[in-house]
Amino acid sequence: MSSLPSVRPAVAELKDILLTEDQIRTRIGELAAEISRDYGGRDLLLVTVLRGGIYFLADLGRALAIPAAIDFMAITSYTADSPSGVARLLKDLDEEISGRHVLLVEDVIDTGLTSAYLLRVLRTRNPASLAICTLLDKTARRIVPALPIRYRGFEIPDLFVVGYGLDFHQRYRNLPYIAVLNEEPEISRPPAP
Ligand code: IMP
Ligand code: MG
Can you list the positions of beta strands (E) in 87-155? Predict the structure, then answer.
């Protein structure tokens, strides 16, 4: 028996639910249909960044109607460990990507600096194509202008959100929905552009 999706956050530190499980699932189905159509017959590799992207990658991948490989990278974060704005690769891909169609699967794009760094790294390896699929897009805080965001789940306002992979000090990633924190955690945010 399945339970109804929760309508209130289960945790006191959280404010409103921005996106429910149902909304996320429905939108992922739509994105997966588009991706399946666009990449049919191609050697598709879904790449995500640990740790925030794992839930989206897992659900998106299972909703695809076409075969796809998956792989993972890890980097230092601009927001926490690297206020100087220099990202560093902590874990590289296991797969070779030359000649393959790479879709970078992101939980959220905020300033765009992280994605820009990842694209720079991946592009040097000559993939057949390289595009981004992001679940959340915070366009208000974008610094990097021309990211190849080919698929976008939701454009959201300038709010700090947690759940479905997104964390506040490593907490809340496992929430099945996306919620707004009660307090704006300034400490974990990059400086405003
Ligand atoms: P960027 O500013 O686009 O480089 O995003 C950097 C990283 O900040 C993202 O990959 C997330 O890990 C984190 N981030 C940005 N916005 C949020 C948010 O609302 N909640 C949790 N993490 C966030
Ligand atoms: Mg992240």
Answer: 89-91, 101-109, 129-137, 149-155
Instruction: Write down the pLDDT at residue 74.
Output: 96
Q: Residues with Cβ < 8 Å from 163, sequence gap 6 or more?
A: 172, 173, 175, 176, 177, 178, 179
pLDDT digits (tens, 9 = 90+) for 45-61: 999 999 999 999 999 99
* 47, 73 Cβ separation under 8 angstroms: yes
Alpha-carbon dihedral 87, 90, 91, 93, rounded to 10 degrees: 30
Å from CA of 91 to ligand 1 middle: 18
Give distance in angstroms: CA of 78 to centre of ligand 2. Answer: 10
The chain-wide mean pLDDT, for the chain, equals 89
Enumerate residues with CB within 5 Å of ligand 2 (an ion): 52
Cβ-contact 182, 15 below 8 angstroms: yes
8-state DSSP, 185:
-
Residue 123 and residue 103: Cα distance in Å, rounded? 12
CA distance 177 to 155: 16
Asked whether the whole model's pTM tops 0.85, one would answer yes
